[in-house]
Amino acid sequence: MSHEGTLLFLIAVLPFVGALLPGLMIRAGRTVCAVSTAVPTLLALIMLLVLAPAVLRGEVVQANIDWLPQLGLSASFFLDGLGLLFAAMILGVGLLITLYARFYLSGDDPMGQFYTYLLLFQGAMLGIVISDNILLLLIFWELTSLSSFLLIGYWKHLPEGRQGARMALAVTGSGGLAMIAGMLILGSVVGSYNLTDILQAGDAIRASEWYLPALILILLGAFTKSAQFPFHFWLPHAMAAPTPVSAYLHSATMVKAGVFLMARMWPALAGTDAWFYIVATTGLITMVIGALIALFKDDLKALLAFSTVSHLGLLTMLLGFGTEAAAVAAVFHIINHLTFKAALFMTAGIVDHETHTRDIKRLGGLRHLMPVTFLIGTVAALSMAGIPLFNGFLSKEMMLEEASHTDWFGSPYAVPILATIGALLSVAYSFRFVSHVFLGPKREDYPNAPHDPPFGMWAAPAILAFLVIVIGVAPFLAEGIVTAAANAITGADLHPHLKIWHGVTPALWMSIVAVLGGAVLLTLHRPLDRAWISAPRPEAKPMFDGLVAALVAASRWITDISHNGAISRYLAIFTITSVLLGFAAYSGSGLAMPTRGLLGVPPVIAVGWIMLIVATVSIVVMHHYRFRALTLLGIIGLSISAGFAYLSAPDLALTQISVETVTIMLLLLALHFLPKVTPKESAIGLRIRDGIIALAAGGGVGSLAYAFMMRDIETISDYHIDNSYEGGGGTNVVNVILVDFRGYDTYGEIIVLGIAGLVIYALMHALLDGPAAKRLKNTDYSQDRSRDRHPLMMVVVTRVLMPIALVVGLYIFLRGHNQPGGGFVAGLVVAIALLMQYMASGFAWTQERKKIEYHTMIGLGVLVAGLTGIGAWLLGQPFLTSAYTYVHLPPIEEFELATAMLFDLGVFLTVLGAVMLMLYSLSRIARFAGETVNVTPMDYDPGGYVTDEEAER
Amino acid sequence: MELIVASTVGVLTAGGVYLLLRLRTFPVILGLALLSYAVNVFLFASGRLAIDQSPILAKYGEATYTDPLPQALVLTAIVISFGMTAVLVMIGLGAYLEAESDRVDIEPEMRDATDKGESA
User: How confident is the model at residue A111 (pLDDT cuts 50, 70, 90)?
Assistant: First the structure.
């Protein structure tokens, strides 16, 4: 990446990094907080200015970091004239807003939050204007929707703020979704997601049959964001935000994003009839309607909001014209609108701040009390009205000039007349802003006695008003940036000359009509206002609320139908669907001929099979008696282990039999606290329904199993068998697969098992802290209890068995690599050996003799297994490559040492730890339920008894 | 032998599904246990059945072996399904102790109550 590219990348990242600062710095005070917001913005602005000369010369700065090139995803940025213009506006106004907000926000407002949101929003906006990858652009686009939601709803205590934020998010967010679809279409038409490529493929895009859908979808995104009719209604409601937010979002940034996007996509999408009629018409309608509504709004900010809607319509219309001169006018007006509109919003904020009202009907005569504010407001308003020597005049003239020779459906008059009406209304509401707020007699009934605010508050709008005049008087100063941006939009080499006097043109006459007509309209405002208020007109908010309520009702209806809280119902639906899908797959292609014959059945196996079937049917029939059902479950598990052993799967047989034991113990412990009998409550119909579902599922799975068992298959297992000894150093292929070939899977599995153990531990603690604890203490479990809880025979037998079981466990572990066994089985066997002690002598007694915590054991196991895997890295091998050697230690026979055994040790420790932790948790509950704690191995001491007898003798 | 294994899988599945559809936690857990037996045997059988061909390499002479891969997969599946059963048992136990009922479904009147609670 070039030096410039690095700078560009930093510009993109700075606001997001900076967003971390204000939240922290607020502790150091409000001014420090504001400064910490200004610093990243200022840094980014300086970097931008470093890049500016090259961009103004027509160069394009690029920065590119590939992420997933196969998917067309990359973090690529570029800066051309258009991007420079917008980035400068975003950062420049961002800086002014930071200053203004420092004085605007009161001490009760959480300022750190505000500046964090502001920087997030700034970063998202910057991202939009300098992204080179449209997928990246879409992400930033959605980020602006989200961060503006936070900003608009900043005053969380105001319902209007919350509702306005929600409405803005719903409208701009759904437009953004439409735009994603449109952009994806563009990307697939062009074959690249790079904006640079797309902009050069304009002809191919316009010729594609997907052009119109893509155009409409992308315009939906742009129109919702830029508040174009009929999506304009969210913008006025977003005025519930603090004024700095309104000034930032609705003059310079958020709403201009849609305009930016249309300008950006201009070379790819513009120039067709569809573009002209959709974009120019929408813009024209929005301009007139927005201006009309603005004239009759009494809320200062609502007036400005609708005037913004109107001016955005003007910009959209200019871009819709599709001519190069119109593009120049649009760029120039973007700059001018930014300067006067941001100044006006800040003025409105100052008036609100000082008088405590924004209602125009309660204001007037402020020019004596707030001369500075009056001056700033007047300059900005006159510019908005399009009065000569202010910058608004220049771009409005250019707009009228373009409108004057635009045909619309064959009519040469429609556009010029409507544009003039729009301009006329614009003059009227601008004059109204000045005359009804500042002019007129001084009043006695302001809610708060107004005076000019401190310098810090009026400095920002003053700078903007100064720019209004400078550009208005010396427009050639803006020529450089306007040329660069217009060239970036059109791709042409334009040399526009911005000047005040164009001679007596149609546009001048239209302007004169507009100014005079606007002045006349203002004098008639009072009767017109009365007529407006009494006239019926559609209100957007109730319609929007109604739509949202209908959507909520619809989704609630769907949820209630599909998600009614009955698990058995979901499971039934799920099972039926699976069976049907399986049947559909089967009936699609049928079956090939069997290639294998049946194996014979020895009588022992037949007996085992009958036991298993009888046990299963019995469980189903008498599952109400829970204890009995558990016993039957044990029979099934044992039969299956026997089957595994017979069918050449000794490892499975060992695992199954030990898991079976542990499972039954666990269920027994749990059953202690649960009801011992399941009530018979299912209706007969329900039972028949479930029976049919169950038989269908069983029949389907059974026949599937039979079908594939009768046919041969190509497997990858030969590889494992061939390489087990050479590569893995073991003759038990199953174990070698577990610890070597698929060691990564096993590693994941022991982690899952460890997590399961910890989850159970956590659940137990949550349970004992909740209301369940009280219930446990108050329930009488004494009837379940045997009077001799720790019988002598049991204690003695388990003590004797303990070392034997441990040795067996060790043996199974050590031979695992070459013979049936291994870490899983060994872990379970040792767990059972320990559990026997718990059962014989009670929980507390055994717990006292425990040397290591089970959590530690789980962690240690995962760690050992992981370190073994990492060890392979040190030797330059992939993760979990095993190494082995043969050792001869007299007097033992030659034996093998493999790193795989170390891995198996990790498995062993995790399994042991997890199983023990699970059962420990259940016994913990038992102790809570009033189980007495014994410190001796048995309830009475047989030895002591003997001594007593001896003493008697 | 294939018929025996297939019928075992079928019967265990049917029993498991039937118990899964019951209304109390304990039969549901039992059903899940039956179903995991069925699934494990099913997976194991996908390596085809063989007798006296354990995948333990013989030191001397040629021998044929059964497919070891399904066995390895089923081995971990058995252990994991134990872990999951244990978690379910704990959840079921917790639910019973907290709610005084071991029903798995939200009863209609309770459902209405929660709906009201949400909208309030």
Answer: confident
CATH of the domain at B22: 1.10.287
The answer for residues whose C-beta is within 8 angstroms of residue A650's C-beta and 6 or more apart is A644, A820, B54, B56
Terminal alpha carbon distance of chain B: 62
Place of tokens 């590119």: A64
Q: Are B78 and B40 in contact (CB under 8 A)?
A: yes
Find, among B12, B79, B75, the residue nearest to B39 by Cα.
B12
| HSE-CB of A342 using CA atoms within 13 angstroms | 38
* Residue at a domain's end among A523, A554, A579: A523
pTM over 0.95: no
Q: How far apart are CA A741 and CA A728, in angstroms?
A: 8
**What whole-number distance in Å separates Cα of residue A793 and Cα of residue A795?**
6
Higher pLDDT, A538 or A423: A423
Would the CB atoms of A655 and B75 count as touching at under 8 Å?
Answer: yes
B3-57 per-position pLDDT tens digit: 999 999 999 999 999 999 888 889 999 999 999 999 999 999 998 888 888 888 8
Residues A449, A372 within the same domain: yes
Residues 6+ apart with CB under 8 A from A578: A697
CB contact under 8 A, B68 and A734: yes
Kindly state whether residue B60 falls inside one of the protein's structural domains.
no
Rounded CA-CA distance A209/A221 in Å is 20
pLDDT 10s digits, A667-688: 888 888 888 888 887 788 888 9
CA diameter of chain A: 139
A682, A764, A914 member nearest B23 (Cβ): A682
Average pLDDT over residues A636-657: 92
Contact present, A58 and A100 (Cβ < 8 Å): no
Q: Are residues A856 and A885 in the same domain?
A: yes
Minimum distance, in Å, between the CA of residue B61 and any CA atom of chain A: 14
The whole-angstrom separation of Cα A257 and Cα A221 is 10
The range of the structural domain enclosing residue A755 comes to: 733-781+788-942
| A919 HSE (CA, 13 A, CB side) | 28
Contact A441, A391 (CB under 8 A): no
Chain B residues near residue A914 by CB distance under 8 angstroms = 83
Q: Is residue A499 part of a domain?
A: yes
Q: Are residues A547 and A576 in the same domain?
A: no
Calculate the dihedral angle through the C-alpha atoms of A276, A278, A280, A283, rounding to the nearest 10 degrees. -160
CA distances from B14 to A664, B36, B103 (A): 21, 12, 22
Tell me which of B75, B91, B103, B104 to substitute to probe the interface with A (most A C-beta atoms closer than 10 Å).
Answer: B75
Q: Looking at the domain assignment, is residue B8 inside a domain?
A: yes
Note whether B6 contacts A709, CB cutoff 8 Å. yes
Q: For chain A, what percent of residues have pLDDT higher than 70?
A: 95
Residues A929-933 have a mean pLDDT of 64
Across the interface, do A647 and B50 touch by the CB < 8 Å criterion? yes
Q: Tell me: the pLDDT tens digits for A811-860?
A: 888 888 888 888 899 999 999 888 888 878 777 777 777 778 888 899 99
Domain tally, chain A: 4
Work out the percent of chain A whose per-residue pLDDT is above 90.
32
Question: Which residues on A lie below 8 Å from B17 (Cβ)?
Answer: 575, 690, 693-694, 697-698
**Is A694 within 8 Å of B15 when comparing Cβ atoms?**
yes
Question: Among A194-198, A801-805, A862-866, B61-65, whose mean pLDDT is lowest?
Answer: B61-65
pLDDT at site A635: 92
* Distance in Å, alpha carbon of A554 to nearest chain B alpha carbon: 15
Which chain B residues contact residue A596 at CB under 8 A? 2, 48
Three-class HEC string of A474-519: CHHHHHHHHHHHHHHHHCCCCCCCCCCCCCCCHHHHHHHHHHHHHH
Who wins on pLDDT, A869 or A432? A432
